[in-house]
Amino acid sequence: MAGLIASLTREVADFPQPGVQFKDLTPVFADAAAMAAVTDALAGFAAGVDLVAGIDSRGFLAAAAVADRLGTGVLAIRKGGKLPPPVHAVEYNLEYGNAVLEIPADGIDFRDRRVVIIDDVLATGGTLAAAAGLLTQVGARVTVAAVVLELTGLGGRETVAPLQVHSLCRM
């Protein structure tokens, strides 16, 4: 699995700012066999959850596929300003700035729902930690997180501890 993901990952220098080596998983998601393998592997980590949450925006792709595979609902954890009010929101720090994540405040009962969070890349862990904190704040039980690619040198796993994180490929 790791070799397949690594072979299809596109590296983009100096994006979104100078000095950042962006790992683009779009080619992984665009390859039918790779997407099926990623979906199966991520779904294996999420057994027993009630809801699959994907982080804006590439996390949506994998989360929707996993939710379909598991027969659960999917939640889009959006960047600030993308959802109609009212919303629950959290502000957090990124490796290259600040950001806001939001989820709907109406229409979804999060209390005691077992949730897996899916994202494409775990870097410094700020986004994943913010998403987990936001879901916990509204009463959900975040049981596990799973990512396609983990950038091990950036300390993301430590940032989100004690949340259990599974990664399909580590670089």
UniProtKB/TrEMBL annotation:
It is an enzyme of class 2 (transferase). GO terms for cellular component: cytoplasm. GO terms for biological process: adenine salvage; AMP salvage; purine ribonucleoside salvage. Keywords: Cytoplasm, Glycosyltransferase, Purine salvage, Transferase. One of its GO terms (molecular function) is adenine binding. It holds the Pfam family Pribosyltran. Its main location: cytoplasm. The keyword Nuclease does not apply. Belongs to the purine/pyrimidine phosphoribosyltransferase family. PANTHER family: ADENINE PHOSPHORIBOSYLTRANSFERASE. This is Adenine phosphoribosyltransferase. The lineage of its organism: Bacteria, Bacillati, Actinomycetota, Actinomycetes, Mycobacteriales. The gene is apt.
